[in-house]
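Before relying on records like the one below, remember that each one covers exactly one chain. Contacts with other chains, cofactors or solvent are not represented anywhere in the record.
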Amino acid sequence: LTITQKTVNMQIRLEDLATKQAYISYETKGNPAEGFAIGDVTASPNLIKISGPRSIVSRVSKVVTSVDVEGLAEDINVNVEPVLYDENGAVIQSDRVSLSQSRIEVSVQILGTKQVPVYCTASGTPAEGYRFIELEYAPETIMIKGEPSVLNQIQGIRIPEDAIDLEGATGDVENSIDITPYLDALGVSLVNSDENKIAVKAMIEQLEVRNMELPMEALQILNQPENLDVTFEETKLTIPVRGMGEELSELTESQIQVSVNLLNLPVGVHAVAAEVTLDERFEVVGTVTLHVHI
């Protein structure tokens, strides 16, 4: 019998233990049934304690629970296993790490959806000599989600007119409006939260001026004194009219009415302001003054 003595060496690496707490986030896979959308998603607990070797624990960047929502049309509660990820998005798998909770209860709210129009108007008056032409905005409809009883009451989303102020504008006014606050006030939200901006453009154009000339015979004299002669120094009526260029070019004399009121004027020479009646698309620049001899 031969006995041989042999020494075997074992290498043991010692490492500090570490503990950290992490917030539990979630991800969903698939899409709910048609006409439905994901509402609030909550995890219980929402914090988890991770313990193990410092070299592993320190790599943990996030803890994620994954829930399959494919075809869902109602709320669900499921227990799922949390997964650890490093900062590069790689899964950390190690039996040397322990978690304070092996399963996480995740509640998923399933809401109804509805496509509704967006209504947008402007406030304020452009600078003198300019006119507000029209308002363009996009998108004109949005998809919202919420409880069916709430969605049934909503026929559209109206952006307050003071969100687009045209006061004193001398050119187009553009704005990007966050629609989220108006949805929050109604108890609903966007199906796609990234589509929260409404691009708005109010078109402002500068008006042109055209001097319209009318014969004196077109002048209507109101309250002409009896038994007195009335003459005017002017040989024609010159009316400066402001409006859009194309519309001005189509304006004719027959569309303009001019009158003067001579009520209670004594004998003599008087400067009288004429009253000009025009289509609402046009305006008279300044005051048209006529000089009358009575």
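The chain is about 5% helix and 50% strand.
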